[in-house]
Amino acid sequence: MTEMNSLDAPGEPDAVHAPAGTIVGRRDGRTRRFLGIPFAQQPTGARRFAAPVRRGRFRQPYDASRHGPTSQRVPLFATTTVPEPSVPGDDVLNLGVVAPAADEDRGPFPVLVWIHGGAFLAGSPASPWYDGRGFARDGVVCVTVGYRLGVDGFAVLDGVPTNLGLRDLLLALDWVQENIAAFGGEPDRVTVAGQSAGGAAVLALLSSPARDGRFHRAVSLSGGFFEAGAVPGFLDELGDRLGVPATRSGFGDRTVEELQRAVLDLRDERGGDGTLVLAPFVGDDVLPVPVADGLAAHGHDVPLLLGATGDEFDSGAGSTDEGRLAGTRRTDTLFRAACPRAAAARRDAAAGTWLYSFEWPSPVLGGAAHCVDIPYFFDVLDAPGVAQALGPNPPRDLATSMHADLTAFVHGREPAWARATGAVGDPAREYGRPGGVLVADTTGVFDPVVRSGPGPGPGPGSEAAGAC
């Protein structure tokens, strides 16, 4: 018998018969896992810089007992907050399904489709922080999706479809619509969610006319409006570094790993200060207009829950009350300001927009840092790497509250706090502020004065005034 490792699903074989074919995963108690299921053809050879092609029906039972290959070949940093394993192989356009055990009294279940972060350059759907066992326990089918990254997913090149990474996600959502009922999911109740670049992808998809019918609710954790595309001249510099022209054929002569490593090296040389060197492109059929404009025009029938952490990339010694009050931090400009902008763009959306702010400071990272809210949303405080990032005693009740709110939203219930419109002093749900009380409606969380204490607040016309 083959020894199990961290990429394997525990339990006994469990098969489903879906339109995609027979898929054999594992059942562990009342949790069923089906991992590494290809939803598209391998993006290799002539398909490498081409639109994703739907995977045909499996002719033989497909072994879905372990995580599939990842688009990530090189992690974003030597050490990342989220454990992000790189899995070798070419079938990177795959997804995992973690579902409740079906019985006569439960189901069909709502569905959560999770998009990982990583600056559109890295990240892994095989992270143990994204295990959907908490959702399965609470009657939700959880799907984690892999998509093309870096040059292969987001470079703008002559003769190459733009936004290939987003096109991958759209095809994955099509697969969910066609197949998720076989896993006990309800295709008419799909919530798409993501964090960081994944949260930005959620906002981009919500703003896109191409998303119609593919999902019905949306959650963005620490997302933003990152649609500027490549930094000017970046691809030419990358080609020079690799000794190839910045074209489809030139980059196609280099392996995915060579490209990813060169991108990260060049990014670091530019300062690595959080600037996105590759990102979704505006001006095609997927994103015809900037995300804020798209949110004003599309997706008004889709409820949206979004928020950010209090310190994001400004945690530690440099995160001061003065910085919060001034609104000068990267946290405010890159992440938190996107929340009221999204709410303002959707002020006429009948489905509603709700905001949250995660304020619990990790004793290890020195603040409410980027990514520390993920184990709370997934309710996986016992997952590998959590203690290293959050300390030995992360508050259990906070995970219970946050996960319950998200699960209720996925189940179709309206959040207990008031809707947001993008105005200064918008209400929000605040999680984990030291000395704070967890209440349903904390008016003024978006105002840095309220978050940090007394002092001069920003004027009503400033970007920080609406920063969540």
TrEMBL record:
Signal peptide: none annotated. This is Carboxylic ester hydrolase. Residues 1-27 are annotated as: Disordered. Residues 15-315 form the Carboxylesterase type B domain. Belongs to the type-B carboxylesterase/lipase family. Its EC number is 3.1.1.-. Pfam families: COesterase. InterPro entries: AB_hydrolase_fold (IPR029058), CarbesteraseB (IPR002018), Carboxylesterase_B_AS (IPR019826). Gene3D superfamilies: alpha/beta hydrolase. Keywords: Hydrolase.
